[in-house]
Write a structure and sequence with these properties.
This protein is of the alpha/beta class and 474 residues long. 36% of the residues lie in helices and 22% in strands. 42% of the residues are buried. It binds 5'-deoxyadenosine and iron/sulfur cluster (SF4).
Length: 474
């Protein structure tokens, strides 16, 4: 566990939560004696949630919890939920229902649900009514208040619901418990102001707010000192970093300052919105030797009418111009994207524009989603005549195209040597390591476990669709 330096925003809140950490720790010691209480934290959804969970785990560890891998073994179960698609929500309801018999066997178990799903009133109400064994519910705005909320549950014996959204503050200086040290998540901004018509995020994560550059740089320095070799800057829309801060700073400037830090590490970031992806950003990536030559630039659709209905505020032509410029300044850049198929009213012909764009850009990989209506968003009110099965067919067609592209791309990498960050040993076979190129492609190769967390040069010997196999070159 590491302690960040307190820097700005709400020192009073930090002091208050530190007091609650002490109080909660005292209650837990009284209840568990010499045994260490165990917490199971399960995270759904995006890296933003993973990062929030690391911060909540830091708070739990400070309260005295150790962590376990299964809900069965836990005294405290926390699900950090995702609201971006219905499927993710269904999984939470299913997994939460499965906790009921556990709680019957172990009545002192505290069950908590938090995150994006809980920030929606209809969901919190459903939990209140139909899941009476859930003790604690809190939304995205309250995650740093976990010690206080937990203390209330422990001492009152009552259910606690905290989904107030008035406090969209950033709290610095609380502990963080990171799952891995080589690859680190570093949030630079929270929230989203874009209101893409299909997306629930602006409703559940609130308005954009940036951390100060001092807070980001301090945390980055600490991560590097602790052995991080890859730092991924996080935000729903990192390109609007700096809006609302006292200091006049934008995202490219933040990248330049991070790039200037000492140490052998690489910088990634996600997510960039194409409407705010500037030539300055692309030039900065090209200039900064620590920036991975990888850009995740979600296009969502290749058709201008659909892009307009999605409220994306760029055209296919503008997007392709950005890609052309990115490649002109970084010929080896690897591009990845997100795509939604079956947006309300989308026709097959319009979908084919997405397919042609995918062929034109030649992505390294992409995340594809079938449109999922989200209550409260504009798109959820639109006519949506195309049946789900048809949308699934389009999706399969798109995936087949991407597979063909990926196969060609990986085949063209055979024989070449890449600098790879060794992330782990593979589970399947002893003596095999797995790493990632700067372009974000996975590669397996034989090597000693001691190489995990270092950079190695690896020659690609064989290409599969999603993974490369290689051998280490000295
Ligand atoms: N349905 C399907 N996919 C969605 N995404 C966001 N909202 C929805 C939705 N309602 C996808 C977008 C976004 C990614 C994180 O999730 O592609 O970029
Ligand atoms: Fe959702 Fe659009 Fe914001 Fe991304 S930019 S979080 S898709 S509203």
């Amino acid at each position: 566990m590491e302690l960040q330096k307190a820097s700005s925003v709400s020192l009073a809140e930090v002091t208050k939560q530190k007091e609650y950490i002490e109080l909660t720790a005292t209650v837990l010691r009284a209840r568990f004696g010499h045994e260490t209480p165990k917490a199971f934290v399960h995270t759904y959804g995006c890296q933003g949630n993973v990062s929030d969970s690391e911060r909540m785990k830091g708070l739990l560890a400070a309260c005295g919890y150790a962590f376990c891998e299964r809900a069965e073994d836990a005294d405290f179960v926390l699900f950090n939920t995702c609201a971006v698609r219905e499927h993710a929500e269904d999984r939470v309801f299913g997994n939460c229902g499965a906790l009921k018999p556990l709680k019957e066997k172990k009545p002192h178990m505290i069950i908590a649900l938090c995150g994006c799903m809980m920030q929606q009133e209809h969901i919190a109400n459903r939990i209140r009514k139909s899941y009476p064994f859930v003790n604690l519910v809190f939304g995205t705005f309250a995650f740093h208040r976990l010690p206080e909320l937990l203390y209330k549950v422990l001492t009152s014996g009552k259910r606690v619901f905290e989904t107030d959204e008035t406090k969209g503050m950033i709290v610095e200086g609380l502990p963080v418990h990171r799952d891995r040290s080589v690859k680190a998540w570093l949030p630079v901004m929270y929230g989203c102001d874009n209101f893409c018509s299909y997306c629930i995020v602006p409703y559940v994560r609130g308005r954009e707010r940036s951390r100060t550059p001092q807070a980001v740089l301090e945390e980055a320095k600490q991560l590097i000192a602790d052995g991080a070799k890859e730092i991924t800057l996080l935000g729903q829309n990192v390109n609007s970093y700096g809006k609302g801060l006292q200091e006049n700073i934008n995202f490219p400037e933040l990248l330049r300052r991070l790039n200037a830090l000492e140490g052998d590490f690489i910088i990634r970031f996600m997510t960039s919105h194409p409407k705010d992806c500037t030539k300055e950003l692309l030039d900065t990536m090209a200039e900064c030797e620590k920036c991975a030559r990888h850009l995740h630039l979600p296009v969502q659709s290749g058709n201008n009418r659909i892009l307009s209905e999605m409220n994306r505020r760029y055209t296919r032509e503008h997007y392709l111009e950005l890609i052309r410029y990115a490649r002109s300044v970084m010929p080896d850049i690897s591009l990845t994207t997100d795509i939604i198929t079956g947006f309300p009213g989308e026709t097959y012909e319009e979908f084919l524009d997405t397919v042609s764009l995918v062929r034109e850009v030649n992505y390294t990989s992409m995340f594809t989603f079938i449109y999922s209506p989200r209550k409260g968003t504009k798109a959820a009110e639109m006519d949506d005549p195309v049946p789900y099965e048809e949308k699934s067919r389009w999706m399969r067609e798109l995936l087949a195209v991407q597979e063909e592209i990926a196969a060609k791309r990986t085949a063209s990498m055979v024989g070449k040597v890449f600098r790879v960050l060794v992330e782990d040993q593979t589970r399947e076979k002893d003596g095999l390591l797995t790493g990632r190129t700067a372009g974000n492609v996975n590669i397996d190769f034989a090597g000693e476990a001691s190489l995990v967390g270092t950079f190695c040069f690896v020659r690609v010997t064989q290409a599969g669709n999603w993974i490369l196999h290689g051998e280490r070159v000295e």
